Amino acid sequence: MQTTIKSSVAFSGVGLHTGARVSVVIHPASAEYGIWFRRTDVALGDNLVPARWDAVSNTRLCTVLSNASGVEVSTVEHLMAALAGCGIHNALIDIDGPEVPILDGSAARFVDGILARGVRRLDAPVRVIEILEQVEVRRGEAVARLAPGPGFEIDFRIEFDEQAIGTQAKRLDMANGAFVQQLCDSRTFCRRSDVAAMQAEGLARGGSFDNAIVVDGDRVLTPGGLRHPDEAVRHKMLDALGDLALAGAPLVGRYQGLRAGHALTNALLRALFSRPGAWRMRLCDEEMARRLPGVGVCRADVPAVA
Are 71 and 46 in contact (CB under 8 A)? Predict the structure, then answer.
């Protein structure tokens, strides 16, 4: 059955790039509503922005959604990952600024808040997007691929020169609460050399050691170090889940990323939907439903950092 959150839940924090304080409230929504953002600070015109792959307007450093009136919501990927990872299909998200707050740089607080409210089943079946043929996009050495599979799996590999990150790979079947238990607390990361460059361009104004892993060569500068030895690749998997959630329905298949990011994952969805024979929408039977992210998760599954 489709789901929504049982009651509204609020979050507040600064935007990673704007540095402005912003509040977000996730509200329950009816079956077939999908996920929408509503810019409550926009008084005139269309303030509703769909959480959908074809509304993505920018993918530099984060995922930005826009509507036809040019109203934007940026840095949506962690919140979208939390919704997908908790199995939420329908929600209206009020936001009083242009950027979703970064919180601690992961999705754990979003997940904890959602599961604290609980998930409500709706009287409507879940439709899934089943991958029928392999679809791949490449940009230089970066690759993103969707292939057929019985459930939903993420397979990711990153390669960085910095010894504190290096080469990391991880593969997870996203069933049985894998996102909540293993990925949701993994934070965004950057190189120390990137911070000054981003801030010189007016970006990362809200960035700090409280909401990102900062590395310099073989050193992790963030106090407390890493939550996982492979936290960087786990965060890339978190981002991928959030960006893939913009497909508009749960995916059934295998996602593979090599050095991929927001831009390549969105390009992959665009390539998928340009090939009608590569996918089909189908009703989700009980066996398939058990393999989707979010099925059977509870608040006790959330790592203690939340």
Answer: yes
Q: pLDDT tens digit string along 50-91?
A: 999 999 999 998 999 999 999 999 999 999 999 999 999 999
Region 80-105: what's the mean pLDDT? 97
Q: Which of these is catalytic: 78, 89, 235, 262? A: 262
pLDDT tier for residue 211 given thresholds of 50, 70 and 90: confident
Domains of the chain (ranges; CATH) run 3-121 (3.30.230.20), 127-301 (3.30.1700.10)
- Can you give the pTM of this predicted structure? 0.95
Residue with tokens 């990323």: 257
Query: If DSSP states are collapsed to H, E and C, what string results for 116-176?
Result: HHCEEECCCCCEEEEECCCEEEEECCEEEEEECCCCEEEEEEEECCCCCCCEEEEEEECCC
CB 226 within 8 A of CB 174: no
> Distance between CA atoms of 112 and 41, rounded to whole angstroms?
26
Q: Which of 25, 106, 40 is nearest to 71 (CA)?
A: 40
Cβ atoms of 148 and 253 closer than 8 Å: yes
89 as an active site residue: the answer is no
Q: Is the pLDDT of residue 39 over 90?
A: yes
